Amino acid sequence: MQYEPIKRSLGRFFSGPLFMRKLLYLLIDLLLLRTWHVKKALRKLRKELPAAAIILDAGSGMGQYSWRMSKMCRGWRITGIDIDNEQIEDCNNFFRKAGLSERVAFRSADLTEFRESDKFDFILSVDVMEHIREDEHVFRNFYDSLKSNGTLLISTPSDRGGSDVHDDKDESFIGEHVRNGYSISEIERKLSGAGFNEVNALYTYGKPGNISWRLTMKVPVKMLNISKLFYIVLPFYYLVFSPVSIILNIFDLRLTHKTGTGLLVTARKKQ
Prior knowledge:
By secondary structure, this protein is an alpha/beta fold. It has helices at about 5-15, 20-30, 35-45, 65-70, 85-95, 135-145, 185-195, 205-225, 230-255; strands spanning about 55-60, 75-80, 105-110, 120-125, 145-155, 195-205, 260-270. The protein has nine helices and seven strands.
């Protein structure tokens, strides 16, 4: 399945008036479980970050996490980078219209090449590393770009059914993925090898989260890959299934999972 064309189409539809992009961010916050887990982690990390923290949103996409972080602390300065020039331009336009361009800016960059030594207090990377083959190189770039005592937060699929791959015969649900997911030992080893300390990986998307993902992501993406006519049906679909998904998200957020199809990973740069 191809996900990027769908994401671009949604970005174009919700561009233009400010309220449309804000509505998109609200829907993402409400429906997508990954945002629930990332927001929970951000709330914890906010107490540790400086009031004037310099932050990198590595693989910023439609800018939803930069938007969330810009609302958490007015003193934070956020740089979003992405390889998609169209999304970079779209995000810069929105944040300029929203009066946030002095605190939030976006630029085109390839994470395999991006490195700004000792610049950032915090780096966030959500659903990015599964798209990059040279992951260890990117981890070293993250390490070099963080200040001493800086923090990295990663959300990515696990090897326990991430990308909807459960055995050797399965193919990734998202065609753009170069890996189906990480094991905890693999990502901890690679981050430690890049120089990080205090690497901590937790499973997300347990049983309730996996059902929620199927309702809010897998079924809609499959429908839209069949025909764009399903864009007409989609609002009614979410109207029916959103209450169920929200309840499942609450359970997934509050439970501790022995296994899950997602990983939430924090790592520190201690020197």
